[in-house]
Amino acid sequence: MTIFLMFLLLGSIAGILAGLLGVGGGLVIVPMLTFAFTIEGIPHEHILHMALGTSMASIIFTAISSLRAHNRRGAVIWKIVTRITPGILAGTFFGSWIAAQLSTNFLKVFFSLFLLFVGTQMLLDMKPKATREIPGNAGMFGAGGIIGIFSSLVGIGGGTLSVPFMLYHNVTLHRAIGTSAAIGLPIAIAGTLGYITNGFGVNGLPSGSFGYIHLTGLCGVAMASICTAPLGARLAHSLPVKNLKKIFAILLYGVGLKMLIGAL
């Protein structure tokens, strides 16, 4: 029961962050799931794979709730979503296969370095200059593939990559966040299918798991995130997001350094 309550709290935080900052709740979900799965006694070699897979599955629910809230405000550019989705699906599914071949320690180091990168990006308010137009179909497929691969390797909805990509291509911040929420749905679906497929037949996974998806963790996170994602989307239009991102960046540094030290 204690672990399930932890899953509920985790989902609440992830849902708010998905709507508020457009960074993807996986940045919070993966470290906390790693901690919860360690307490649960899941074998070390499977912990991060389970955390990544469960994070991806939970983002399906977060993304649906968040994109609906942003769409009601007219913040989703569906033309971008439809054009980037084929690359997203291919890249994310392929990325989940890559992750299945890697060790937990390697994935921990990779995830930790990604947290430090995102923290630096937020702390320094690094934004690409809007100097280009949205690329053609080939460019969108390639961009989607890269975003999908990295998203599946760190268990996120892609906001930390898709938002800068859109800002670079003259999309306003609020519409980039809203469109990123919609892009998170195909990322989450493809990633979930990939982690389920690659987790079948793996020895040592806990009972009640579906491939690399921890069903109890998924239920707790999804139930809470569905409720809180619309709140985050509303707050994004009324709170000083820049200041909040700097505070969140410091937290990412702390989590990233802790995981990196633990892996090394």
UniProtKB/TrEMBL annotation:
Alphabetized, the UniProt keywords read: Cell membrane, Membrane, Transmembrane, Transmembrane helix
Q: Return the GO cellular component terms, semicolon-separated.
A: plasma membrane
Pfam hit, one: TauE
Q: What topology in the membrane does the UniProt record assign? A: Multi-pass membrane protein
> Where the protein is mainly located, per its record?
membrane
Q: Where in the cell is it found?
A: Cell membrane; Membrane
**Where would you find the membrane-spanning parts of this chain?**
46-64, 106-124, 136-156, 176-197, 209-232, 244-261
Keyword Cytoplasm assigned to the entry: answer is no
Into which family does the record put it? Answer: Belongs to the 4-toluene sulfonate uptake permease (TSUP) (TC 2.A.102) family.
Name recorded for this polypeptide: Probable membrane transporter protein
Query: What organism does the record attribute this protein to?
Result: Desulfopila aestuarii DSM 18488
